[in-house]
Amino acid sequence: MKFSVSLILLSLLSACQKKEAITGSREGSTPLEKALSTFEVEPGFKIELLASEPEVASPVDMEIDEYGRLYVVEMPGYPLDKSGTGRIKLLSDTDGDGKMDKSTVFADGLVLPNGILRWKKGILITDAPDVLYLEDTDGDGKADKRETVLTGFSLSNPHVNVNNPVYGLDNWVHLSHLGAIGTRKYGTEFGDQGTEIHFPGQPDSPRLPKNADGHNVRFRPETHELEMASGRSQFGHTFDRWGHHFFTHNQNHIYQEAIQAEYLKRNPDLLVPDATQVVSDHGKATEVFQITKKPDRQLFTPVGVTTSSSGITAYLGGAFPAPYDGNVTFVAESVSNLVHVDIISDKGASYTANRQHPDREFLASTDSWSRPVNMYVGPDGALYVLDYYRQTIEHPEWMSDEAVAAGGLYNGYDMGRIYRITPTQAKGPEWTKGLKLGDATNEELVAYLADANLWWRKNAQRLLVDRGDKSVIPALSKMSDNTSSPMGRLHAMWTLEGMHSLTPALIQTALKDPVAGIRENAIKLAERHLKDAAGLQEPLLTLQNDPDPKVRYQLLCTLGYINTPEAGVARQKLLFQDLDDDWVQIAALSANASQTAPLLKTVLASYKAGNPAYASLLQRLTAIIGAGEKPEPIRELIQQAVQPAGGKQGWQSPVLSGLTDGLKRKKIDFATLSHEQTLLITSAFENPSAEVRKASLQILKVIGVQDSVQLKKGIEKAVNLAKNQALPDEKRAEALDFIALGNPAPYEGTVQKLIIPQEKPAVQLAALKILGQIPNESVAHYVLKSWDALTPEIRDAALNTFLTSPERVKLLLDAIESGKIKPASVGWPRSVQLMSHSDEKLREKARALLTKNDKDKVNKDYQKALELTGDVGKGKLVYMQNCALCHQVRGSIGVSYGPDLGTVHNWLSKDLMANILDPSLSIAPGFDLWEVEMKDGDPVQGMIMSETSAAIKLRTAPGIDKTINRQDIKGLKALNMSVMPVLTSQIDHQKMADLLAFLKNSRSEQP
């Protein structure tokens, strides 16, 4: 009885803990009736509310099935609650007005569910460590069948857990997955590293490495096929209409899986550190144009750039006007309360993503609680945006301890909105009244394969493959020849493939299709039939002259499986035809390693000096050789490459660089290269080619120098060369770099004397690098002593030397605390590194110093200006009268002297005002004031605009530059002040409010 009572008490305690864990407030949120008014949407589009609390809360993914039933994944437990509060809701529109007004809990007791896909008669749910199958077998609207389909994924930080299952064109289920990440605070709750990924209860089925090595995964539940992708994505991934795979990850808002894992497996010695391609032409961490009135900024959230990209979605709904249909991707940016759009265009084997507008987003909200996290394209062609709706979206792992202690992590957990975006004239969502796709005949489903909306094509394909009715094959074969619908032909072929009924004859026809995307997919399909249809090889080879680069690229990947002389000739032709494309080189080299030696001979014979493509190909080829197990070819290549007379030919440096990359794998005994070590030392000092000298030293850093006497002599020679000011700075810097092969400590004093303003920057940087390798704090002490005399370029490198040990970090933080180094000088990436340091005392001190905010104390009287309503037009006049003399806004309206003020539109008003009132509060890097003491005694003040090995250029006034030769400099010091004047006498409270309004809205300002 006591045991039973204990269990009851424990259960009650657990229930109370669960309830308390996700208690949150709604104070500060926007009421539903005002929610739509907070949004700015792209002209020509409208936004409507589809669903909201109380019917839905904390939504992260959705699925509309073939009957028009809306499933929503709710994850109220984010960020820390693992007590099983996750749910799947079924939402319905009972009165047919296009808004969901009824909800049913389809499944509950989930931990942190984050993805859904319609499958068979139920749904697949990602809920780490599992992928679950849920089905309602008795028709009561609740799942009574729950099976674990796949398991082994890490239950790590919710940002990176396995998520967003997608049914691919290839009939596989694709999972987004980033793998486990380290945690400082929550190791007990989220320190799980995962196990092998496997199908439970299927001992003979495939198993992937532990946590799939943090890669995306694809699988087929019914046949127990399982594979690891070559890339990884955080939350969300998407395919374009031809099956190209796009990912997103925090700041990197869009990138592509450029080559698939199966191709890279063919040649394990091919070094490909990253199989993905950044496709954005406006930066990985692109600027975003937030309109939020009171943005929520946490500890590690940078201002004005993507930092929480998620839910990337290719729009293939067929209902949006150009340029939005078929070649755009949307990505949610929850921290900045917006949705960003990119226009996708071809670029060789890959793509380029272009910003649609230079100064605004597709969708943005003034409400700081609005948290778009995911998107879905529905059967009506609408873009549905899932708004998680929380006060705080950042994970407490990366928040200040004070913010976590203040509570509020779950504020809004019981709220959530789903919005519908359509062209302005679009009708309401008819699908909410129900769909009958699930009851369609096979012939009707085949017709839907040609629909303009991917939702209908994909679901029709899935249903046909699921039914597996062979009687539909003639209709599918006919659709594969539908000249009026490329999409119909595409999906018909893949449907036949999914039903194991695609014939070589249909593939051959598709290889001749007038649409490049069809030909590309036909090659992929042919690849799957090469073993049982050898006759496909000849028609494949005819595509080596195809006009489309993506067709040629896919052909090159596929030909790596064909080991015939004809295929070898075609691979080489394809390689040199598109040699400038790095992915073409990688695809060519992914074939069997037996091709490496003959291809290397060909490249050396035809090498074109000055052509970067030849250099990169040669480096990749020799990296394969360097990673091999035979020392003889490595020795031969080194001996050829270090010949003094050969440097002008240009191939020697790439050869050595490639060998260096390969030798890092250390499959041979480096002692067998003792003779080559001597040759490399001589080459590092005496080769007439600077590139060969540097490459020789780099390979020595990998293999080392076995002879200690030889090494000591070499270092002494290097020290003498470094001190010789008559030598070119390049030679002296190389000599300093050589010292790193041994112990640089005995030469500390000599090296320090080279870090002075009179020395060339290249020499200073090399000396600083060597000084930093001495395992004590000498470099930190020297940098602090010389800080005021270090130029911006040298300062930036010097700051990095502090981050290599706790002892140096402490000295840096002490210098920030004393005012010797300003926090703004540290920069955002280094600040984040310091604020997340593993040492608790250093971490807390860094957070205290780098987040210290004295801005509210700056001229308290002006705090009244923050309460006034500013006028943008009047603010522009204030700007023209007081700021335009020294500043511009996005390259116009003023003089380029101080920082461009077009970048401050995302700043908080109080921070912006504080910096206007006290310009020296946080000086932008590169805009601080310096004083140069000349040897003739006359001081010169200005901003350092640039520096070369011979001179420093100062900007002494707007439009006035002065070049100063280094030999004329006696001393140099930073004045730690801004050149901008204090404006309190010219700007009253209302003018300040107007100026702030202008600067906050200058994103759309035109000259």
Brief account:
The protein has 1007 residues and is of the alpha+beta class.
**Number of helical segments?**
34
Give the overall shape: globular
Helix content: 25-40%
The assembly state of the depicted protein chains is single chain
The portion of residues forming beta strands comes to 15-25%
Q: Ends: how far apart?
A: 82 Å
Computed over alpha carbons, the radius of gyration is 32 Å
Unreliable spans are: 1-20
Counted beta strands: 33
Instruction: Summarize the main sheet.
Output: 6 strands, antiparallel
Overall description:
This protein has 1007 residues and is of the alpha+beta class. Helices cover 34% and strands 19% of the residues. The chain contains 34 helices and 33 strands. The strands form eight sheets. Strands 1, 21, 22, 23, 24 and 25 form a six-stranded antiparallel β-sheet that branches. Helix 15 packs parallel to helix 17 and helix 17 (612-626) packs parallel to helix 19 (652-663). It is globular and about 90 Å long.
Layout: helices, strands, pairs:
Blueprint: H1 2-21, H2 32-35, E1 39-41, E2 45-52, E3 59-64, E4 70-74, E5 86-92, E6 102-110, E7 115-119, E8 122-127, E9 130-135, E10 145-151, E11 163-167, E12 173-176, H3 187-190, E13 196-198, E14 207-210, E15 217-220, E16 225-228, E17 237-239, E18 245-249, E19 252-257, H4 261-264, E20 276-278, E21 309-314, E22 328-333, E23 338-347, E24 350-355, E25 363-365, E26 372-377, E27 383-387, H5 401-405, E28 417-423, H6 442-448, H7 454-467, H8 473-479, H9 486-498, H10 504-510, H11 516-527, H12 537-541, H13 549-559, H14 565-577, H15 582-589, H16 596-606, H17 612-626, H18 631-641, H19 652-663, H20 674-686, H21 690-703, H22 708-723, H23 729-738, H24 748-752, H25 761-772, H26 778-786, H27 792-801, H28 806-818, H29 823-826, H30 828-835, H31 840-850, H32 872-882, H33 909-917, E29 928-934, E30 939-947, E31 951-957, E32 960-965, E33 969-978, H34 989-1000
Antiparallel strand pairs: 1-25, 2-28, 3-4, 4-5, 5-6, 7-8, 8-9, 9-10, 11-12, 12-15, 13-14, 15-16, 17-18, 18-19, 19-20, 21-22, 22-23, 23-24, 23-25, 26-27, 27-28, 29-30, 29-33, 30-31, 31-32
Helix pairs in contact: 6-7, 7-9, 8-9, 9-11, 10-11, 11-13, 13-14, 15-17, 16-17, 17-19, 18-19, 19-21, 20-21, 21-23, 22-23, 23-25, 25-27, 28-31, 32-34
